[in-house]
Amino acid sequence: MQSHEYYIKRCLEIAKLGLGTTRPNPSVGCVIVANNIIIGEGFTSPYGGPHAEVNAINSVQDKSLLKLATLYVTLEPCSHHGKTPPCSDIIIKHEIPEVVIGCLDDNPEVNGKGIAKLKKAGCNVTIGILEEQCKTHHRRFFTFHNKKRPYIILKWAETSDGYLAPKQKKEQRPVWITNTISRQLVHKWRTEEHAILVGTNTVLEDNPSLTARDWKGSNPIKVVLDRELKLPKFVSIFKNPDDCITITDISNNSQKSDNSNQWTIHPPQDINDSKFNSNMVSFIDYSKEKTIAHQISETLYKYKIQSIIIEGGAKTLQTFIEENLWDEARIFKGPTLFDGGVKAPVISKKIKNQVLIKDDVLTIYSND
Ligand SMILES: NC(=O)C1=CN([C@@H]2O[C@H](COP(=O)(O)OP(=O)(O)OC[C@H]3O[C@@H](n4cnc5c(N)ncnc54)[C@H](OP(=O)(O)O)[C@@H]3O)[C@@H](O)[C@H]2O)C=CC1
Ligand SMILES: Nc1c(N[C@@H]2O[C@H](COP(=O)(O)O)[C@@H](O)[C@H]2O)[nH]c(=O)[nH]c1=O
Ligand SMILES: [Zn+2]
User: Fold this and answer.
1) Were 14 and a residue from 29, 76, 241, 247 both cysteine, which residue would form a disulfide, CB within 3.0 to 4.6 Å?
2) CA of 315 to the centre of ligand 1 (A)
Protein backbone atom coordinates (compact mmCIF):
# COMPACT_ATOMS: atom_id res chain seq x y z
CA MET A 1 0.00 0.00 0.00
CA GLN A 2 1.34 3.44 -0.94
CA SER A 3 1.46 6.36 1.51
CA HIS A 4 -0.65 9.51 1.42
CA GLU A 5 2.55 11.38 0.45
CA TYR A 6 2.96 9.17 -2.61
CA TYR A 7 -0.44 10.11 -4.02
CA ILE A 8 -0.19 13.83 -3.15
CA LYS A 9 3.17 13.81 -4.96
CA ARG A 10 1.35 12.45 -8.01
CA CYS A 11 -1.30 15.19 -7.58
CA LEU A 12 1.50 17.79 -7.65
CA GLU A 13 2.94 16.25 -10.79
CA ILE A 14 -0.31 16.49 -12.72
CA ALA A 15 -1.18 19.90 -11.23
CA LYS A 16 1.85 21.28 -13.09
CA LEU A 17 0.12 20.45 -16.38
CA GLY A 18 -2.40 23.23 -15.81
CA LEU A 19 0.12 25.95 -14.87
CA GLY A 20 -0.52 29.15 -16.76
CA THR A 21 -3.92 28.12 -18.14
CA THR A 22 -6.28 28.24 -15.16
CA ARG A 23 -6.08 31.86 -13.97
CA PRO A 24 -7.58 33.31 -11.91
CA ASN A 25 -8.07 29.82 -10.47
CA PRO A 26 -5.14 27.85 -9.05
CA SER A 27 -3.90 24.83 -10.98
CA VAL A 28 -4.95 21.97 -8.73
CA GLY A 29 -4.11 18.28 -9.12
CA CYS A 30 -6.34 15.40 -8.01
CA VAL A 31 -5.96 11.62 -7.88
CA ILE A 32 -8.57 9.02 -6.90
CA VAL A 33 -7.44 5.73 -5.44
CA ALA A 34 -9.43 2.55 -4.78
CA ASN A 35 -8.00 -0.80 -3.67
CA ASN A 36 -4.49 0.72 -3.87
CA ILE A 37 -4.92 1.51 -7.56
CA ILE A 38 -5.22 4.95 -9.14
CA ILE A 39 -8.64 4.88 -10.81
CA GLY A 40 -8.90 8.53 -11.79
CA GLU A 41 -6.81 11.67 -12.27
CA GLY A 42 -7.50 15.26 -13.17
CA PHE A 43 -6.17 18.79 -13.09
CA THR A 44 -7.94 22.15 -13.30
CA SER A 45 -9.33 23.00 -16.75
CA PRO A 46 -8.79 26.42 -18.33
CA TYR A 47 -10.84 29.09 -16.59
CA GLY A 48 -14.57 28.40 -16.69
CA GLY A 49 -14.12 24.64 -17.11
CA PRO A 50 -14.36 21.88 -14.50
CA HIS A 51 -12.01 21.84 -11.51
CA ALA A 52 -9.45 19.09 -10.85
CA GLU A 53 -11.73 17.03 -8.60
CA VAL A 54 -14.51 16.95 -11.21
CA ASN A 55 -12.09 16.00 -13.99
CA ALA A 56 -10.70 13.23 -11.79
CA ILE A 57 -14.18 11.90 -10.92
CA ASN A 58 -15.23 12.06 -14.58
CA SER A 59 -12.16 10.05 -15.57
CA VAL A 60 -13.17 7.10 -13.35
CA GLN A 61 -14.69 4.39 -15.53
CA ASP A 62 -16.40 2.32 -12.87
CA LYS A 63 -18.17 4.95 -10.77
CA SER A 64 -19.29 2.35 -8.25
CA LEU A 65 -15.68 2.25 -7.00
CA LEU A 66 -16.01 5.86 -5.81
CA LYS A 67 -17.94 4.69 -2.75
CA LEU A 68 -14.80 2.99 -1.44
CA ALA A 69 -12.23 5.42 -2.81
CA THR A 70 -9.87 8.05 -1.41
CA LEU A 71 -9.66 11.37 -3.21
CA TYR A 72 -6.29 13.12 -3.01
CA VAL A 73 -6.05 16.80 -3.88
CA THR A 74 -3.38 19.53 -3.61
CA LEU A 75 -5.81 22.21 -2.38
CA GLU A 76 -8.95 22.14 -0.26
CA PRO A 77 -12.01 21.39 -2.45
CA CYS A 78 -14.09 24.49 -3.13
CA SER A 79 -17.40 25.08 -1.43
CA HIS A 80 -18.79 28.01 -3.39
CA HIS A 81 -20.62 28.42 -6.67
CA GLY A 82 -18.21 30.13 -9.08
CA LYS A 83 -18.23 29.35 -12.79
CA THR A 84 -18.83 25.73 -11.76
CA PRO A 85 -20.70 24.05 -8.86
CA PRO A 86 -18.78 23.39 -5.61
CA CYS A 87 -16.41 20.41 -5.78
CA SER A 88 -17.19 19.47 -2.16
CA ASP A 89 -20.86 18.93 -3.19
CA ILE A 90 -19.80 16.68 -6.06
CA ILE A 91 -17.52 14.63 -3.79
CA ILE A 92 -20.45 14.23 -1.36
CA LYS A 93 -22.84 13.35 -4.20
CA HIS A 94 -20.57 10.48 -5.26
CA GLU A 95 -20.23 9.35 -1.63
CA ILE A 96 -16.43 9.31 -1.68
CA PRO A 97 -15.66 8.32 1.92
CA GLU A 98 -12.14 9.71 2.31
CA VAL A 99 -10.47 12.95 1.20
CA VAL A 100 -6.77 13.79 1.67
CA ILE A 101 -5.77 17.42 1.18
CA GLY A 102 -2.36 19.03 0.65
CA CYS A 103 -3.12 22.52 1.91
CA LEU A 104 -6.02 24.75 2.84
CA ASP A 105 -7.39 27.43 0.50
CA ASP A 106 -6.92 30.90 2.05
CA ASN A 107 -9.58 32.35 -0.22
CA PRO A 108 -12.18 33.65 2.28
CA GLU A 109 -14.92 32.20 0.07
CA VAL A 110 -13.50 28.70 0.64
CA ASN A 111 -11.19 28.71 3.70
CA GLY A 112 -12.22 25.72 5.79
CA LYS A 113 -15.77 25.71 4.44
CA GLY A 114 -15.12 22.96 1.90
CA ILE A 115 -13.72 20.74 4.65
CA ALA A 116 -16.57 21.55 7.04
CA LYS A 117 -19.07 20.53 4.36
CA LEU A 118 -17.27 17.24 3.69
CA LYS A 119 -16.98 16.39 7.37
CA LYS A 120 -20.64 17.22 7.97
CA ALA A 121 -21.52 14.73 5.23
CA GLY A 122 -19.54 12.04 7.06
CA CYS A 123 -16.42 12.13 4.94
CA ASN A 124 -13.10 11.36 6.62
CA VAL A 125 -10.78 14.30 5.90
CA THR A 126 -6.99 14.43 6.33
CA ILE A 127 -5.24 17.79 5.91
CA GLY A 128 -1.61 18.88 5.48
CA ILE A 129 0.04 16.08 3.53
CA LEU A 130 3.14 17.55 1.80
CA GLU A 131 1.69 20.88 2.87
CA GLU A 132 4.79 23.00 2.13
CA GLN A 133 5.19 21.50 -1.35
CA CYS A 134 1.51 22.14 -2.08
CA LYS A 135 1.79 25.73 -0.83
CA THR A 136 4.88 26.21 -3.00
CA HIS A 137 3.05 24.83 -6.02
CA HIS A 138 0.15 27.25 -5.39
CA ARG A 139 2.48 30.16 -4.53
CA ARG A 140 1.24 32.52 -7.25
CA PHE A 141 -2.38 32.10 -6.13
CA PHE A 142 -1.52 32.53 -2.44
CA THR A 143 0.75 35.55 -2.97
CA PHE A 144 -1.91 37.29 -5.05
CA HIS A 145 -4.66 36.75 -2.48
CA ASN A 146 -2.68 37.12 0.74
CA LYS A 147 -0.16 39.82 -0.18
CA LYS A 148 -2.42 41.60 -2.67
CA ARG A 149 0.27 41.66 -5.34
CA PRO A 150 1.56 39.41 -8.12
CA TYR A 151 4.12 36.70 -7.42
CA ILE A 152 7.36 38.26 -8.67
CA ILE A 153 10.13 36.32 -10.41
CA LEU A 154 13.37 38.07 -11.38
CA LYS A 155 15.22 36.52 -14.27
CA TRP A 156 18.41 37.43 -16.06
CA ALA A 157 21.43 35.97 -17.87
CA GLU A 158 24.92 37.12 -16.99
CA THR A 159 28.37 36.41 -18.35
CA SER A 160 31.06 34.64 -16.33
CA ASP A 161 32.48 38.07 -15.50
CA GLY A 162 29.09 39.38 -14.33
CA TYR A 163 27.64 41.45 -17.21
CA LEU A 164 24.15 41.57 -18.75
CA ALA A 165 25.18 43.29 -21.96
CA PRO A 166 28.44 44.31 -23.63
CA LYS A 167 29.77 47.89 -23.74
CA GLN A 168 28.67 48.37 -27.29
CA LYS A 169 26.11 46.65 -29.46
CA LYS A 170 26.05 46.64 -33.23
CA GLU A 171 22.42 45.65 -33.66
CA GLN A 172 19.12 46.28 -31.89
CA ARG A 173 18.74 42.74 -30.60
CA PRO A 174 19.89 40.76 -27.56
CA VAL A 175 23.48 39.54 -27.35
CA TRP A 176 22.90 35.94 -26.29
CA ILE A 177 24.78 34.77 -23.24
CA THR A 178 22.90 31.52 -22.66
CA ASN A 179 22.54 28.49 -24.91
CA THR A 180 19.42 27.54 -26.88
CA ILE A 181 18.27 24.99 -24.27
CA SER A 182 18.29 27.63 -21.50
CA ARG A 183 16.45 30.02 -23.81
CA GLN A 184 13.78 27.43 -24.54
CA LEU A 185 13.36 26.91 -20.80
CA VAL A 186 12.75 30.65 -20.47
CA HIS A 187 9.97 30.35 -23.05
CA LYS A 188 8.40 27.57 -20.99
CA TRP A 189 8.58 29.87 -17.96
CA ARG A 190 6.90 32.62 -19.94
CA THR A 191 3.90 30.34 -20.54
CA GLU A 192 3.62 29.77 -16.79
CA GLU A 193 3.43 33.42 -15.76
CA HIS A 194 0.62 35.89 -16.23
CA ALA A 195 2.84 38.79 -17.31
CA ILE A 196 6.39 39.73 -18.30
CA LEU A 197 8.07 43.06 -17.59
CA VAL A 198 11.09 44.87 -19.03
CA GLY A 199 12.55 48.37 -18.70
CA THR A 200 12.75 51.09 -21.35
CA ASN A 201 16.39 50.55 -22.33
CA THR A 202 15.86 46.85 -22.85
CA VAL A 203 13.16 47.61 -25.42
CA LEU A 204 15.29 50.28 -27.09
CA GLU A 205 18.46 48.19 -27.17
CA ASP A 206 17.14 44.65 -27.71
CA ASN A 207 13.76 45.15 -29.37
CA PRO A 208 12.63 41.92 -27.61
CA SER A 209 9.51 39.97 -28.58
CA LEU A 210 8.84 38.64 -25.05
CA THR A 211 6.78 35.79 -26.46
CA ALA A 212 6.83 32.08 -25.64
CA ARG A 213 7.33 31.12 -29.28
CA ASP A 214 9.58 28.13 -28.51
CA TRP A 215 7.10 26.44 -26.17
CA LYS A 216 3.47 25.40 -26.38
CA GLY A 217 1.25 27.70 -24.37
CA SER A 218 0.04 31.24 -24.22
CA ASN A 219 2.15 34.37 -24.24
CA PRO A 220 2.27 36.45 -21.08
CA ILE A 221 0.83 39.97 -20.99
CA LYS A 222 3.68 42.39 -21.70
CA VAL A 223 4.41 45.20 -19.28
CA VAL A 224 6.92 47.89 -20.16
CA LEU A 225 8.29 50.84 -18.23
CA ASP A 226 8.26 53.98 -20.35
CA ARG A 227 8.58 57.02 -18.09
CA GLU A 228 8.60 59.56 -20.92
CA LEU A 229 6.45 57.63 -23.44
CA LYS A 230 9.43 57.66 -25.75
CA LEU A 231 9.22 54.11 -27.05
CA PRO A 232 8.49 54.05 -30.78
CA LYS A 233 5.33 52.42 -32.01
CA PHE A 234 7.15 50.03 -34.36
CA VAL A 235 9.00 48.00 -31.71
CA SER A 236 8.14 44.30 -31.55
CA ILE A 237 6.35 44.38 -28.20
CA PHE A 238 3.68 46.64 -29.70
CA LYS A 239 3.07 44.37 -32.73
CA ASN A 240 0.12 42.81 -30.98
CA PRO A 241 -1.23 45.74 -29.00
CA ASP A 242 -3.89 43.63 -27.30
CA ASP A 243 -1.58 42.37 -24.64
CA CYS A 244 0.60 45.24 -23.54
CA ILE A 245 0.54 47.58 -20.55
CA THR A 246 2.80 50.62 -20.52
CA ILE A 247 3.71 52.14 -17.18
CA THR A 248 4.57 55.81 -17.42
CA ASP A 249 5.01 58.82 -15.19
CA ILE A 250 2.01 60.61 -13.76
CA SER A 251 3.25 63.84 -15.36
CA ASN A 252 2.52 62.37 -18.80
CA ASN A 253 -1.07 63.44 -18.73
CA SER A 254 -3.63 62.00 -21.07
CA GLN A 255 -3.36 65.02 -23.37
CA LYS A 256 0.19 64.12 -24.33
CA SER A 257 -0.79 60.50 -24.75
CA ASP A 258 -3.74 61.43 -26.96
CA ASN A 259 -1.50 63.64 -29.08
CA SER A 260 0.90 60.82 -29.73
CA ASN A 261 -2.11 58.87 -31.03
CA GLN A 262 -0.41 55.77 -29.78
CA TRP A 263 -2.12 55.05 -26.54
CA THR A 264 -5.54 54.47 -25.12
CA ILE A 265 -5.82 55.35 -21.49
CA HIS A 266 -7.74 52.85 -19.40
CA PRO A 267 -7.69 53.19 -15.63
CA PRO A 268 -7.10 49.71 -14.16
CA GLN A 269 -10.44 49.69 -12.39
CA ASP A 270 -12.14 49.66 -15.83
CA ILE A 271 -10.32 46.59 -16.96
CA ASN A 272 -11.25 43.04 -16.32
CA ASP A 273 -8.77 40.23 -16.56
CA SER A 274 -9.79 38.94 -19.95
CA LYS A 275 -10.32 42.30 -21.61
CA PHE A 276 -6.98 43.66 -22.69
CA ASN A 277 -8.14 45.25 -25.89
CA SER A 278 -5.55 47.86 -26.74
CA ASN A 279 -2.31 49.37 -25.58
CA MET A 280 -3.03 50.43 -22.07
CA VAL A 281 -1.21 53.04 -20.07
CA SER A 282 -0.99 53.21 -16.32
CA PHE A 283 0.54 55.96 -14.27
CA ILE A 284 2.92 55.88 -11.35
CA ASP A 285 4.80 58.69 -9.64
CA TYR A 286 8.45 58.27 -10.64
CA SER A 287 9.48 61.15 -8.36
CA LYS A 288 8.70 58.97 -5.33
CA GLU A 289 12.00 57.14 -5.26
CA LYS A 290 12.25 53.76 -3.53
CA THR A 291 8.55 53.14 -4.14
CA ILE A 292 8.59 52.53 -7.88
CA ALA A 293 8.57 48.75 -7.65
CA HIS A 294 5.76 48.93 -5.09
CA GLN A 295 3.76 51.28 -7.29
CA ILE A 296 4.24 48.94 -10.28
CA SER A 297 3.14 46.00 -8.17
CA GLU A 298 0.02 47.83 -6.96
CA THR A 299 -0.85 48.70 -10.55
CA LEU A 300 -0.47 45.09 -11.65
CA TYR A 301 -2.65 43.92 -8.77
CA LYS A 302 -5.38 46.27 -10.00
CA TYR A 303 -5.11 44.55 -13.38
CA LYS A 304 -5.53 41.25 -11.48
CA ILE A 305 -2.13 40.01 -12.62
CA GLN A 306 -1.26 36.98 -10.48
CA SER A 307 2.38 36.58 -11.41
CA ILE A 308 5.09 38.36 -13.36
CA ILE A 309 8.54 37.48 -14.65
CA ILE A 310 10.84 40.50 -14.75
CA GLU A 311 13.47 39.96 -17.44
CA GLY A 312 15.60 43.11 -17.10
CA GLY A 313 17.44 45.29 -17.65
CA ALA A 314 19.78 45.95 -14.79
CA LYS A 315 18.10 49.12 -13.57
CA THR A 316 14.64 47.58 -13.55
CA LEU A 317 15.81 44.45 -11.73
CA GLN A 318 17.79 46.55 -9.27
CA THR A 319 14.68 48.60 -8.49
CA PHE A 320 12.83 45.46 -7.36
CA ILE A 321 15.85 44.13 -5.46
CA GLU A 322 16.38 47.43 -3.60
CA GLU A 323 12.73 47.60 -2.60
CA ASN A 324 12.96 43.92 -1.62
CA LEU A 325 9.91 43.21 -3.72
CA TRP A 326 10.52 39.83 -5.30
CA ASP A 327 9.83 36.20 -4.48
CA GLU A 328 12.19 34.20 -6.65
CA ALA A 329 15.26 34.92 -8.78
CA ARG A 330 16.37 32.71 -11.66
CA ILE A 331 19.85 33.62 -12.79
CA PHE A 332 21.77 32.05 -15.67
CA LYS A 333 25.53 32.28 -15.87
CA GLY A 334 26.90 31.58 -19.32
CA PRO A 335 30.53 30.88 -20.25
CA THR A 336 30.99 34.13 -22.27
CA LEU A 337 33.13 37.08 -21.09
CA PHE A 338 32.18 40.69 -21.98
CA ASP A 339 35.02 42.43 -20.15
CA GLY A 340 32.84 45.45 -19.33
CA GLY A 341 29.31 46.62 -20.12
CA VAL A 342 26.04 46.64 -18.15
CA LYS A 343 26.80 45.13 -14.73
CA ALA A 344 24.45 42.36 -13.56
CA PRO A 345 22.54 42.94 -10.31
CA VAL A 346 23.71 41.08 -7.21
CA ILE A 347 21.52 39.05 -4.89
CA SER A 348 22.69 38.02 -1.44
CA LYS A 349 20.30 35.24 -0.48
CA LYS A 350 20.69 31.57 0.16
CA ILE A 351 20.77 29.47 -3.01
CA LYS A 352 17.67 27.30 -3.29
CA ASN A 353 18.71 25.24 -6.26
CA GLN A 354 21.45 25.09 -8.84
CA VAL A 355 21.50 23.12 -12.09
CA LEU A 356 23.76 22.80 -15.07
CA ILE A 357 22.16 23.27 -18.48
CA LYS A 358 24.96 22.19 -20.80
CA ASP A 359 27.52 24.95 -20.22
CA ASP A 360 25.12 27.37 -18.44
CA VAL A 361 24.66 27.39 -14.67
CA LEU A 362 21.12 28.18 -13.52
CA THR A 363 20.86 29.35 -9.91
CA ILE A 364 17.51 29.81 -8.18
CA TYR A 365 17.14 32.03 -5.14
CA SER A 366 14.08 32.35 -3.00
CA ASN A 367 13.41 35.53 -1.04
CA ASP A 368 12.18 33.93 2.17
N1 LIG B 1 21.30 39.47 -20.15
C2 LIG B 1 20.06 39.71 -19.77
O3 LIG B 1 19.39 38.87 -19.15
C4 LIG B 1 19.45 41.02 -20.08
C5 LIG B 1 20.19 42.03 -20.64
N6 LIG B 1 19.63 43.23 -20.89
C7 LIG B 1 20.49 44.31 -21.38
O8 LIG B 1 20.48 45.34 -20.39
C9 LIG B 1 20.57 46.61 -21.02
C10 LIG B 1 19.48 47.50 -20.46
O11 LIG B 1 19.61 47.61 -19.06
P12 LIG B 1 19.37 49.01 -18.34
O13 LIG B 1 20.15 50.05 -19.07
O14 LIG B 1 19.68 48.82 -16.91
O15 LIG B 1 17.88 49.32 -18.63
P16 LIG B 1 16.37 48.86 -18.26
O17 LIG B 1 15.87 48.03 -19.36
O18 LIG B 1 16.29 48.40 -16.87
O19 LIG B 1 15.66 50.24 -18.42
C20 LIG B 1 16.03 51.29 -17.57
C21 LIG B 1 15.10 52.42 -17.77
O22 LIG B 1 13.81 52.07 -17.24
C23 LIG B 1 13.32 53.11 -16.48
N24 LIG B 1 13.41 52.73 -15.06
C25 LIG B 1 13.55 51.51 -14.55
N26 LIG B 1 13.56 51.52 -13.22
C27 LIG B 1 13.46 52.77 -12.87
C28 LIG B 1 13.47 53.44 -11.63
N29 LIG B 1 13.54 52.81 -10.47
N30 LIG B 1 13.41 54.77 -11.62
C31 LIG B 1 13.31 55.41 -12.75
N32 LIG B 1 13.31 54.84 -13.94
C33 LIG B 1 13.38 53.54 -14.02
C34 LIG B 1 14.22 54.28 -16.80
O35 LIG B 1 13.74 54.89 -17.96
P36 LIG B 1 14.00 56.44 -18.27
O37 LIG B 1 15.43 56.54 -18.62
O38 LIG B 1 13.07 56.75 -19.37
O39 LIG B 1 13.72 57.15 -17.00
C40 LIG B 1 15.53 53.63 -17.03
O41 LIG B 1 16.46 54.36 -17.80
C42 LIG B 1 20.44 46.37 -22.49
O43 LIG B 1 21.73 46.50 -23.06
C44 LIG B 1 19.97 44.94 -22.63
O45 LIG B 1 20.56 44.34 -23.76
C46 LIG B 1 18.32 43.47 -20.63
C47 LIG B 1 17.54 42.49 -20.09
C48 LIG B 1 18.05 41.21 -19.72
N1 LIG C 1 20.64 38.03 -23.43
C2 LIG C 1 19.89 37.06 -22.87
C3 LIG C 1 18.56 37.29 -22.45
N4 LIG C 1 18.02 38.51 -22.63
C5 LIG C 1 16.60 38.80 -22.35
O6 LIG C 1 15.74 38.21 -23.32
C7 LIG C 1 15.07 39.25 -24.05
C8 LIG C 1 14.81 38.83 -25.49
O9 LIG C 1 13.59 38.16 -25.54
P10 LIG C 1 13.02 37.61 -26.95
O11 LIG C 1 13.16 38.72 -27.95
O12 LIG C 1 11.60 37.24 -26.69
O13 LIG C 1 13.87 36.43 -27.33
C14 LIG C 1 15.99 40.41 -23.91
O15 LIG C 1 15.43 41.65 -24.17
C16 LIG C 1 16.41 40.30 -22.47
O17 LIG C 1 15.35 40.68 -21.61
N18 LIG C 1 17.87 36.23 -21.91
C19 LIG C 1 18.40 35.00 -21.78
O20 LIG C 1 17.73 34.08 -21.28
N21 LIG C 1 19.65 34.77 -22.20
C22 LIG C 1 20.43 35.74 -22.73
O23 LIG C 1 21.58 35.45 -23.10
ZN1 LIG D 1 -13.65 23.23 -7.06
Assistant:
1) 29
2) 5
